[in-house]
Design goal:
By secondary structure, the protein is mostly helical. It has 21 helices and two strands. A hairpin with a 6-residue loop joins strand 1 and strand 2.
Length: 506
């Protein structure tokens, strides 16, 4: 009852006129920041951080958290309407969101994304409120071996994303791992894979650069090739009744994905250095792996939208937990929020709940209000997003190209990234022509920089003994599950091949 009382007082603080205005403004700004390729929540929060010194500390952190919430919602918009991920957290949404939009059902995709985001955020808020101290201790129990085992499990869930051609899937994963290793070694500091001594490679290959190239330029080239530029307009009319029907369909067809994404996303979100992007990709992989019709993923399946969208919103709330309770940021965005709190004279950590209860519970209360506001504002703007799809492809294609280039340049202000985007776009188009899956490569370049240092740190702890991944209880359990998932598709193929040879012999 005490928790409910504290939450109630926090929500009353969040709906005070100034704080409520900051929530509405933050969510709206975050929505469009998330929808703009190359920006995302990290850049949005960093850019707007100085403005918050004009308001009290509680209002400031509520405003920045609202931007974070809005950006999580907004990332799906350009992923669905244009095929360009607005942020790295929305890459997995592109896999099924864009195909659904091309089928003339963009409103269903957008409503599904908004609803899944709301469910993921709501579930995460409840878990955060009830179990924050316990979950913080769970996050602390994850050392390098446990985090590497979790990354291995993520790769295992994606083995099936390449269909029956496991060889092509493994090639795609290895290709992504190689790209993720370019630049300075995170442990020794030595440069690696710097082609032709080009200094641009020293900073590494940014994930957003790869994502915009593959799903922006690559998707545009593929659409031109497949349709010769003749793409029909999507959803010429939008009505409230139609949106209600879409919401009902999204709930009926996507509840499994919402469940997986909400729970798995929060768990991954609370782990330091993980964040919403791995959570979204892992949830997509698990949703496909556990589906009765996995072959429908990538063709416009509702679960392929609900899983990553509920996961990235759940993870964004989860990443707040280690920041507030331990003083450890759970994502790049929460790292900026942590810096802002320190500048305002607040000390994140175990005593924050005791020393600053009004601030903490006001922030938690704002999570609930921001989640509702983000849903309503997102739904209100869906007709505007649909309007974009009514433009002829002869206009839309140059717009996609320009947004991809501008978004790629905005991330690091480096022309070298523009050349990489073009190369990756053409390369993705060629690989797609030869039926190579792109999703595993995207997963690898996200998880590779997390998996490699944790693997090496684990081996340093064990003096090179690989059994550390099996002897530690949590790491051992996750590793065994991952190995089973890795070898299961291979066994299925061998069994299928044996049955075919038996039929021929008969």
């Amino acid at each position: 009852m005490e928790i409910l009382s504290l939450l109630g007082s926090g929500m009353l603080l969040a709906v005070q006129p100034l704080n409520l205005l900051l929530i509405l403004l933050g969510v709206t700004v975050g929505l469009f920041i998330g929808a703009m390729p190359g920006l995302g929540s990290v850049n949005g929060v960093a850019i707007l951080l100085p403005i918050t010194f004009l308001v009290p500390p509680t209002g400031a952190i509520i405003f920045l958290a609202a931007i974070y919430y809005g950006a999580m919602y907004g990332g799906a918009i350009s992923s669905i309407t244009l095929g360009i991920p607005g942020a790295s957290t929305a890459v997995a949404t592109t896999f099924d969101g864009r195909p659904l939009a091309r089928q003339g059902r963009a409103s269903l995709a957008l409503v599904t994304a908004a609803l899944a985001s709301f469910v993921g955020g709501s579930v995460a808020n409840v878990i955060f409120t009830l179990f924050a101290p316990v979950l913080a201790s769970v996050a602390l129990s994850f050392g390098p071996p446990e985090i590497f085992a979790l990354m291995l499990l993520a790769f295992a869930t994606f083995v099936g994303l390449g269909g029956d051609d496991i060889a092509k899937t493994i090639f795609s994963i290895c290709f992504g791992l190689v790209l993720g290793a370019v630049g300075f070694d995170q442990i020794s500091g030595a440069p690696r894979l710097v082609l032709f001594d080009i200094t641009g490679f020293l900073q590494g290959i940014g994930f957003l650069v790869l994502a915009i190239g593959v799903y922006g330029i690559g998707e545009m080239l593929w659409t031109i090739e497949e349709s010769r530029g003749e793409v029909e307009s999507s959803n010429p009319k939008m009505t409230v009744r139609g949106m209600a029907s879409d919401a009902a369909e999204a709930t009926r067809k996507g509840w499994r994905g919402m469940t997986i994404g909400s729970l798995l996303g929060f768990f991954v979100g609370i782990l330091p250095a993980a964040g919403a992007t791995p959570a979204a990709l892992m949830s997509y992989g698990v949703a496909k792996m556990t589906s009765r019709n996995p072959e429908e993923f990538g063709q416009g399946k509702v679960d392929g939208i609900t899983a990553p969208e509920s996961a990235n919103n759940s993870a964004s709330t989860g990443s707040m937990l280690p920041m507030l309770t331990l003083g450890i940021p759970g994502s790049p965005t929460t790292a900026i929020l942590l810096g802002g709190m320190v500048m305002w004279g607040l000390t994140p950590g175990p005593r924050l709940f005791l020393d600053e209860p009004e601030f903490v519970w006001g922030l938690i209360g704002s999570f609930y209000i921001s989640n509702i506001a983000a849903l309503l504002i997102n739904l209100a703007f869906i007709p505007v997003f649909i309007w974009m799809l009514r433009m002829p492809f002869s206009i839309l294609a140059p717009m996609i190209f320009v947004l991809s280039i501008v978004g790629g340049y905005a991330a690091m202000n480096d022309m070298f990234d523009i050349w990489l985007i073009l190369i990756f776009g053409i390369g993705a188009f060629v690989l797609r022509r030869f039926d190579y899956p792109l999703a595993p490569a995207v997963l690898a370049i996200v998880l590779g920089p997390i998996a490699e240092p944790t693997l090496r740190q684990s081996l340093l702890l064990s003096s090179g003994d690989l059994s550390i991944f099996l002897t530690r209880p949590i790491a051992g359990t996750i590793t065994v599950v991952a190995l089973i998932l890795i070898f299961l598709p291979a066994l299925k193929l061998l069994r299928r091949g044996g049955s075919k040879r038996g039929d021929k012999a008969a």
